[in-house]
Amino acid sequence: FNFQIDPKDIGNDIESFKISTSCENQANKSKSTGLISDKSSGQLKELSLELDELPVCEDDVVTSVQLLKGSTNPNASVSYYCPEEVSLWAKANDLMPIDSEQSTDLVSGVYEGGLQLWECSEDLAKWLLDKAELQPGLRVMELGCGAGLPGLSCLRRHRPVKVAFQDFNPEVLRAWTMPNCRLNLADLARPPQLEFLAGSWAGLAAWEAARGAFDLVLTAETIYNPDYYQQLHDALSHLLAPDGVALVAAKVSYFGVGGSESLFCDFLDRRGQFSHSTAMRTESAALARVILELRRRR
User: Fold this and answer.
1) Structural domain of residue 247, as residue ranges?
2) pLDDT tens for residues 244-263?
3) Which Pfam families would you find in this protein's record (predicted)?
4) Does the pTM exceed 0.90?
């Protein structure tokens, strides 16, 4: 992408990085520190933790650890905790953002499906592992991260200076994103700076103004609802550096929800701020998917 990064921005080495905190202990900690979602406020909340404070799901809590590998670069890989087991654990510890008796992938404005592993997040993660050639030292943000696989792919292969993960629900960050980050940092001699943000995209403008823009913004499965297009557009407008790139991975159509690639691209064209092109398209009779590349118009 030909980004220009100042080498002095690259973080310092981390000499020691111990993994010792279980998800069970972190569940108790999250209850005591008020990290359960305030469904009424919708405000952005920064969850600040040091690297050795990130929760980890130990084998006696969530036993299944799966491996995602790039098909053309077998040395680049991302590990993540099994979403089905994480969801069961989260329900058992009252960390689900919806009532435990409900069985749904989505409750608009309450729970946006963050504890599911969606196909397009895997598409984007694999594309970043296999195809993308990025300069080291980038500032990376993943919006609507859930498991955080695209952000973790950058973390594992491209040596960013910073990766920020945002999800609507702090419970998702605590129960899944943070343990996945801890899992993938263990063997890195030079981990990037990590940030975790919970809440609506509407809060990102004020947050970014105090911290600076990002070279690469990643998001997957976030265009399913046209009602959110303006918020997503505004978030990208505030977050993306002048020469930055946003990668949007999505299904071509979201049946029953209303969103689609064509609707989103039409929305971008009407706003006139971003150009868009296709970085990858997966043709399938059952589930066509795409990765869009967005840049600011000159």
Assistant:
1) 84-296
2) 999 999 999 998 778 999 99
3) Methyltransf_16
4) no
